[in-house]
Specification:
The protein has 398 residues and is of the alpha+beta class. The chain is built from eleven helices and 15 strands.
Length: 398
């Protein structure tokens, strides 16, 4: 049996796996604080990556998709606060120049560098300040690479309120993940920006299989506002410094790590104060379970009820029922629970109302639905909807 150790919440800072180093600095993308980061392996590596399906994918995604095809990425660079999307040919040239400069600093081929860019859409990168920044960084070389995972996670943030990191181990290998994302968040492949670095020795095929399996059960089960970003990227880089590990054990550890990051992003949703977890069981198949769960977690009426600690189970029935194509769902076979209290079809007694409200007031609210059709189950993750979500997004560019 493989033992997976959830170490990311233990005392002390999360540090890089063997053979990785990182840099963060201020390149003028935001007014204050680090906004450019680089994480690199000091030896050849294997990699796997997934990207947004948006028709308006930015130059960072199109360039990285081409580089990721070789499955030998060794470095990731991220620009925060500017998505460099809808910026035309100049945006493509700017992304390529950033990659070229990072590759030069590291002394590796350009096609071994992945680039992520996140923030406002439709604005060109401030290449003047970025060039000056990279010129200065180049003079320092690898001596500048002293940043830890928390530093990089913080430098990637846009409207996030806190950096997101996670750590797992499998055998002698360590797996470290960093992520950002709190809005424009319902991916079809991964989510916003999430990078995983490990010193495990994994074949490209096993690494790709592990990533896709993990993303399907975690990042693809996340939604804050039903909107898919133009910049979504998830990648894993494995440099083999710790030697080979059991592929099944690695997949288990990677999925656990990605779930941790998923929950961190959901609970930090823009304006959110609560994590919302919706589980649908006894579905005909996994696709149906996930579809119904997403329908509930994405409902503005459900999300506002969670925000107000209002156990309005009728809104959950509405969110299930609007899936008209799932005609095999029969209301008489459905059950709904808030926490451990059934609210449908057996309406709770009046004296349990206070307990229901108490459940809805918790930092994490769980809704469990059974469909009475089969054995499939899916859990999805989201958050409540508050007035602060409107405030953040109404003022995003001004």
């Amino acid at each position: 049996m493989t033992h997976v150790h959830a170490l990311n919440r233990s005392p002390g800072p999360v540090t890089w796996p063997t053979g990785f180093r990182a840099y963060t600095g201020h390149g003028g993308l935001r007014e204050h604080g680090d906004d450019i980061s680089i994480v690199a392996s000091d030896r050849p590596a294997t990699s796997a990556a997934m990207f947004t399906r948006s028709l308006f994918a930015g130059p960072a995604v199109t360039l990285s998709r081409a580089h990721a095809a070789g499955q030998n990425l060794c470095a990731v660079t991220t620009l925060a606060q500017n998505a460099n999307v809808a910026t035309g040919r100049q945006g493509e040239e700017n992304a390529a120049e950033v990659v070229r400069r990072v590759a030069g600093i590291l002394g590796i081929p350009e096609d071994e560098v992945l680039i992520g860019s996140t923030g406002v859409i439709g604005r060109p990168l401030p290449m003047g300040t970025i060039r000056t920044h990279f010129d200065e960084t180049a003079t320092r070389g690898l001596a500048a690479f002293v940043a830890g995972p928390l530093d990089v996670a913080r430098a990637m943030m846009t409207t996030d309120t806190r950096p997101k990191t996670a750590l797992r181990t499998v055998g002698q290998a360590r797996i470290v993940g960093i992520a950002k994302g709190v809005g424009m968040l319902e991916p079809n492949m991964a989510t916003m920006l999430a990078y995983v670095f490990t010193d495990a020795d994994m074949s490209p095929a096993d690494l790709d299989s592990a990533l896709r399996g993990a993303a399907n059960r975690t990042f693809n089960c996340l939604s804050v506002d039903t909107d898919t970003s133009t910049s979504d990227t998830v990648a894993v880089i494995a440099n083999g410094a710790a030697g080979p590990v059991d592929p099944a054990g690695f997949s288990e550890a990677l999925t656990d790590l990605c779930l941790d990051l998923t929950q961190q992003m959901a609970s930090d949703g823009e304006g959110a104060i609560k994590l919302l977890r919706v589980t649908v069981g006894q579905a005909g198949d996994y696709g149906q379970a996930k579809r119904i769960a997403k329908s509930v977690v994405n409902s503005p009426l459900v999300k506002t009820a969670v925000h107000g600690a209002d156990p309005n189970w009728g809104r959950v029935l509405m969110a299930i029922g609007k899936n008209a194509d799932d005609s095999d769902i029969a209301p008489g076979n459905v059950t709904v629970r808030f926490g451990d209290i059934e609210v449908y079809p057996e309406e709770p007694e009046a004296d349990t109302l206070d307990k229901l409200i108490g459940i809805m007031r918790q930092d994490e609210v769980g809704i469990v639905i059974t469909l009475g059709l089969g054995q499939a189950e899916a859990t999805v993750y989201g958050c409540d909807l508050s007035a602060d979500y409107i405030r953040v997004n109404a003022d995003y560019t001004t």
